[in-house]
Design goal:
By secondary structure, the protein is an alpha+beta fold. The chain has 2 domains: 9-49, Arc Repressor Mutant, subunit A, CATH 1.10.10.10; 62-142, Lrp/AsnC effector binding domain/regulation of amino acid metabolism (RAM) domain (Alpha-Beta Plaits, 2-Layer Sandwich). The chain has 6 helices and 4 strands, in the order ααααβαββαβ.
């Protein structure tokens, strides 16, 4: 039987610090937490193997880059196969985040597209045209991200 690895307060501190700045070195993490670089290295390996730390990434300012950030709230018809829809969406170039959801929508899909409205319309149509079981689609344009905190 595989040994279950526990997450402790030091692991939580590491994840919080990295969620604020993923560029921190092991030395900087160790100094912030009051431990050694070697201990941070071992813990980071553990957190990555467990899938707790999945990705180190950049959060771009889409507006400054000349793009629009659009959120699609997709409600599927009863009986639709959610995983089949997710598979279709994963292959779409402009789809950046796909989230399964409970509530009004089955899926929340983040799209990044050039600011031209005709192009946005075309991109949204190309994303949704392959999904046969859409019951309702809400489109929201993100105008400003006031807070983005991962943990």
């Amino acid at each position: 039987m595989p040994r279950k690895v526990k997450i402790d307060p030091v692991d939580i501190k590491i994840v919080r610090l990295l969620s604020e700045n993923a560029r921190l070195t092991y030395k900087e993490l160790a100094e912030a937490i009051g431990t050694t670089r070697q201990r941070i290295s071992r813990r980071m390996n553990k957190l990555e193997k467990m899938g707790i730390v999945q990705k180190y990434t950049v959060i771009p300012d889409y507006e400054a880059l000349g793009y629009s950030h659009i959120v699609l709230g997709i409600t599927l018809k009863p009986g639709a196969k959610l995983d089949d829809v997710v598979s279709i969406l994963k292959d779409k170039e402009h789809v950046k985040i796909i989230q399964k959801a409970l509530g009004t929508h089955n899926l929340v899909v983040h799209v990044v597209a050039p600011k031209d409205m005709k192009e946005i319309q075309s991109i949204i149509e190309s994303i949704t045209s392959d999904i046969k079981d859409i019951d309702h689609l809400d489109i929201t344009f993100i105008t400003e991200t006031c807070k983005f905190q991962t943990f």
